[in-house]
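W.,

You were right to be curious about this one. When I first looked at the sequence I had no strong expectations either way, so I just let the prediction run and decided to look at it fresh. Below is the sequence, 399 residues in total, followed by the output.
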Amino acid sequence: MATFPLALDGVRVLDLSRVIAGPWCGALLADLGADVIKVEDTGAGDESRTWPPHKDGEAAAYLLFNRNKRGMTLDLKAPEAVEVVKALVGSSDVLIENFRTGTMESYGLGYEALAAINPRLIYCSVSAFGRTGPRKDAPGYEALMQAFSGIMSITGEPGGQPVRAGVSFLDLSTGMLCAMGVCAALIQRERTGLGQRVDGSLLETAVSLLAFHAEGYLLTGAIPKALGSGHPSLSPYRNFKCKDGQWIFIAAANDRFWVKLAGALGLDDLAADPRFAVNQQRVKNRVELEALLEREIGVRDRDTLLKLLAEADVPAAPVNTVDQVMTDPQTIERGIVQTVTHPTLGEIPVVGTPLHFSRMSPGVRRAAPLRGEHTDQILAECGLAPKKIRELRDKKVVL
């Protein structure tokens, strides 16, 4: 079988970002073959290193978001470090940063300054609110942006308090969108010979993910409300509690599946009831309908019900815990969990690239770097002599 190169082989990425969104962008580019250089400060380093849980002192979050990267340290407040970044930019294709607006400019490392050094540079800025507008200088974290964007207002049970989604999906989605933006800019550079700035923000990611909720408001003025696990446009389409205390999600997403669900539960009369016969009426009368279903489902054990619904071709799934999905045969068969050798931990599992290709095999090739693991190697690649590297270390510019 022929071996094909990865899409981003030969592309160098300078990753000055921290925590999730920017590092996830860098990790995805690294999965696709890019040589990603992770730059950490000489103080505490990337704060994701402090996030529990830890395995022998190494944080799971850091290990995930920085796989396939080489690592170095730099004190960007030092003029010598700024010169190192500029030297790296000269041989780099992409730079990723997620400092607060104006910080990179204060270091002399803004887009205009670096584009003057390397006009082919693609400069990806990740921020909470974007680099323009009245809130451009405001800080933002995942939960703050879930709150600000309105997402928190439609998450949780009806009448309950607004709830943060359990997954940091705005950070992660912003990282994915920025990776896509970088790839698009690389393609355009092949045509124009010029790089450009890619400006990604959690706010714009959030508004785009509001999707039909946002579009529905724009078209009709309807303000979405929290529906627990339910869907504003479909019913029944939510979690139900079974007799054994376990939960099942039933997705009767159209009239055909609704008829099958009613038949499987022995509720054929409901399928023909004018209040429930078509989806629009079921949504209108969801409280009454779902109360009837809760009673019927609540007298059945989950495994028995899942088998019954599968035989009736009704889409349904157990509400798994994380350990259950990570050990499910389907997860294992798809190979999303890969193994890699870490310098101190030995062989470790890492959640890998969530895409499959027929002509290339992106994946986890290198464990996340130790702090400063490749500093000397990278500085030497910039043309710095061993004596100069020792001087930078003596001045605490690097560690």
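Here's what jumped out at me. The radius of gyration is 25 Å. And, maybe more interesting for your project: The first helix runs from residue 21 to 31.

Coffee later to discuss?

I.
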